[in-house]
Structures are given as C-alpha cells and as structure tokens.
Specification:
Number of strands: 9
Oligomer: single chain
Largest sheet: 6 strands, mixed
Distance between the termini: 22 Å
Shape: globular
Helix content: 40-55%
Radius of gyration: 19 Å
Number of helices: 11
Length: 264
C-alpha cells in the first residue's frame, strides 16, 4: 500500500486511513491514485468483510489541495488525466469515491474535522457515514466555479431529496455533523466516529460474509432497478445462500448458542 493511505486488517475489518495529515488529507494526484489502488486491492481481498475509511490528523479530507486548484485556474477544465476513463462507467476523478460504493463488502466512513468537496464525495461513496457532531461537511465545488464531479450524481440522490441536493450544491454551505444527520447526509453522529465505525465494522464482520456480500449486491443493484429485475435478483441470490456452508453454520451457531465460525 502507498504511505498516503494506510491499511490494517484485523478480524476481517480493514481500517483504512487517508494519511496526509499535514494537509488535512487534501486530494493531490498522488492521493487520488493511492485511494483508488487501495480500494481496488481491498475489493479482491477475500479476508476483508468490512471496511472503515477515515482520515489521520485533524480532519477526514479537505477536498482538492490548493496546488491543484491553482493549476486548474489556468487549465482547460475539459482536459487532464483525471477526466480519462476506461471501460468502466466512472472516470479517474470519480473512482476514489465510486470504488467504495462498488466494493463487494460494506464500507463505513468515519468523519471528523472537515469533509469538503471531494472529501465529502468520497464519504458519500461509502455505504454508511458516521460523523462527529462538530464535523464540517460541504459540497464546496461552487466556491471554485465548479460542479461536484466525483460521482455525487450516483450517491447523493439516495440520501436527500432533489431540492436539498440542489440547495447544498448551489450554495456550498457548511453543515455540522448534526445538521448533516438531520438532512440524511450522514447515518448517525458519534463523539468518536472512528471507534463507532470500527465497532460497527466488527459487528458486520461477525455475520456470514456470503450473506453480507449478497445483501450489498442486492441493495446496490435493485435500488433503482425495475421491480422484475429486483425481485429476480432477490430470488437468485437467496438460492445461492440456502444450504451453503456459511448459511448452515449460521443456523448451527444460533441453535447451539455459540459464536459462528464462518469461512471466507
């Protein structure tokens, strides 16, 4: 792993930390690359059952660093490696947020300090967001004459009504963690969001990994699908689980009143 992003996997939970604390984990081109590489590697790690994403230092992520903003002032906004794409739907700028949404296991972000612009969009890419009450969050791109373009069109729509999304995007106003929870932008607030996220990650990791992965796939794939596709996916995923080793182990553990021993 790159030193800009650290990873520690314990008992199935990957503790992933953005690690540029002197810059509030601001997003340089190198940070973009490190985040994507980390997410893609964890996506292939069968031993990982849940991911907690946080930032070292005084904040989660302050968005694009000022050097990048200064370079943009004199650049063609339609150019640059960050806008390039491959066969996947997202481009290079969108991937640091979208990689968490597309990860096969649940992802939880722990937000403290600031989550501005691209930093907020990375948090929005996770399945669950736990924030400190006094954290500061903002869709801040309008401050720089830009629109949010790190996959917010695919994440914010599932959290807030359209009028709220527009107001946040048009104004760039800063929300506290508590205000963000009231709007639905974050899942809940905790005084120690990282500890709460790790506890939740461990709880998820204690469930059948097959069922957890299937549940995430079902919800991600069916949420905007038509009813036939959603119902058929429900049935097909359930068919793969019934009678599988981990499903049998869940039943045996419950009846035996013991902790389950699942395999990855």
């Amino acid at each position: 792993m790159n030193d800009l992003v650290t990873v520690d996997v314990t008992d199935g939970v990957a503790d992933v930390r953005l690690n540029r604390p002197d810059k509030y984990n601001a997003l340089s081109p190198e940070m973009f690359k490190a985040i994507v590489e980390t997410g893609e590697r964890l996506s292939e790690a069968r031993e990982v059952r849940a991911v907690v994403l946080s930032g070292n230092g005084r904040g989660f992520c302050a968005g694009l660093d000022m050097g990048s903003m200064q370079r943009l002032a004199g650049a063609n906004p339609g150019a640059g490696a960050l806008l390039e794409r491959d066969e996947r739907p997202e481009n290079n700028a969108q991937r640091p947020a979208f990689v968490w949404k597309r990860m096969p296991v649940p992802t939880i972000s722990a937000v403290h300090g600031v989550a501005y612009g691209g930093g907020l969009q990375i948090a929005l890419g996770t399945d669950i967001r736990i924030a400190a009450p006094d954290a500061k969050l903002s869709v801040m791109e309008i401050k720089w004459g830009l629109i949010p373009d790190m996959s917010i069109s695919q994440t914010l729509r599932d959290l807030v009504p359209l009028d709220v999304a527009k107001e946040l995007t048009f104004t760039g106003r800063v929300l506290s963690g508590s205000e963000a929870m009231d709007l639905g932008l974050v899942t809940r607030v905790e005084d120690d969001p990282h500890a709460a996220a790790m506890n939740l990650g461990r709880e998820i990791a204690g469930k059948s990994p097959d069922a957890i992965r299937a549940a995430k796939r079902l919800l991600e794939s069916s949420w905007h699908a038509d009813e036939r596709d959603g119902l058929e996916l429900e049935a097909s995923l359930q068919k793969t689980l019934i009678g599988s080793p981990n499903q049998k182990e869940a039943v045996k553990a419950n009846f035996g009143k013991r902790a389950p021993r699942f395999t990855d």
